Amino acid sequence: MKNLSQPVHRASELELFYDGDCPLCMREVRMLQRLDKNAQIRFTDIAEPTFVPPQGVDYAGLMQRIHARRGDVWYHGVEVFRQLYAAVGFGPVVSLTRLPGLAQALDAGYRAFAANRLRLTGRCSDGSCAVGEAA
To answer: The pTM is what?
Structure first.
């Protein structure tokens, strides 16, 4: 779901930067959009042709791993998912993901997924699957 409109950004709002060309990412985004009953999340599609990265952030970095921000505070990797799910009301479950052992396993699993996301979603071009290259 590509969003061309850029609503006014609220300081308390969590802004998610996602790859709208990634089918797995879009499945998660659509679910979060349904769960976000109180409009706590701003969804920003970095695959949109009109997307301009925020100052100090580059497109390749946004493609390497998931990012979100609330005001001037940036989140990366698994912490983004914690922030997203807390925003839609799953705080108690989120707290479990911080438990020793589980937190490390989730971080390692996400790093492996992020490093292989383009290949896993069939988006490698000419045999190249470098993370950060435009899909």
So the answer is: 0.83
